[in-house]
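User: I'm writing a short report section on ligand binding and want a predicted complex to refer to. Could you take this sequence and NAP and write out the structure as tokens? A short remark afterwards would be nice.
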Amino acid sequence: MDGARVAREDRVKRIALLGYPVEHSLSPGMHDAAFDALGLPYRYELLPVTEEEFGARVRECVAEGFAGWNVTIPHKGRMLPFLDWMSDEVRATEACNTVRVESGRLLGYNTDAAGFMAGLAEVGGIAPGSQAVLLGAGGAARAVAWALVRDGYDVTVLSRRQEQGEQLAQALESHLPRPIDHASLSPATLNRHLEGASLLVNCTPVGMWPNVSLTPLPVGLRLPTGLLVYDLTYRPRPTELLKRAAQMGCRIQDGLAMLINQGAAAFELWTGCAAPLAVMRRSVSGRTTETPRTQRT
Ligand code: NAP
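Assistant: Sure. The structure tokens for the complex follow:
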């Protein structure tokens, strides 16, 4: 290897995705395209890591001089005990998807919340103080509920296991200015809570590839015209839910916007540079039609 190439490779700042599985992630292509577009000396790599290996892998990443990493399923909560500092989002949602290493200290962020809100703004948003209904009460729903209530919206979480919605509401309560309403997911509760709502967010994987004909909507349910329906899934685009919502006169948004914007927020934390959103969008847009075994950010 010539001297100039050695010097160049020495300067490369390594970024990784820690998760399991990670092979089908769109993040390496998206981030490497963004680093190249700005001429930044960063490279993004996949690190499949099991639960048992997680702590040792984190310590190796620090020892090997990684500049930062993303964390995905199933480790977003597992990252917290390793952090020297965490953002309000991480503290509230108990989930960390982005780490920045600064002088050996691990700083933890959750960019899913910012990514979701940026996707909402891209399609014109909803009126201040209006009502949002979330389907599902898992990790993504926590980030979405936290961001919406922080920004002044009223949120109701409908989940098939009512205790999961209750846990979400309790966990976020002390971090937010107002409580989150919750109920079990049924045709009757959905109908009732959609009356007067401005936003419906699908935070379940229902409708995600390969089960593309499914929707979380009960048969025959009519969505109010003018409702904004936001599906966090981006495979397929649009989902069956979004197709039906558009036919009923609703505005729609899919999960690709959240994926790109959560990545952009992480990019900015690592590099300090404004993310080239158009480059990132171009890099992932075509790839959502591929047929993966799993879907991972
Ligand atoms: P999660 O933690 O597993 O939560 C999934 C939630 O959906 C749980 O409440 C689960 O309830 C519920 N659910 C699953 N199957 C259901 C069904 N058939 N009917 C009703 N509820 C059902 O997953 P997550 O991390 O929150 O992710 C949720 C979705 O958002 C996934 O499709 C994920 O790919 C997507 N996502 C997208 C982005 C993005 O950037 N676009 C980011 C994060 C997540 P149970 O616990 O009872 O199963």
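A remark for your report: The pocket of NAP is lined by residues 112, 115, 136-141, 159-161, 164, 185, 203-206, 208, 216, 232-234, 255, 258-259, 262, 295, 297 (CB under 6 Å). Confidence is low (pLDDT under 50) at residues 1-8.
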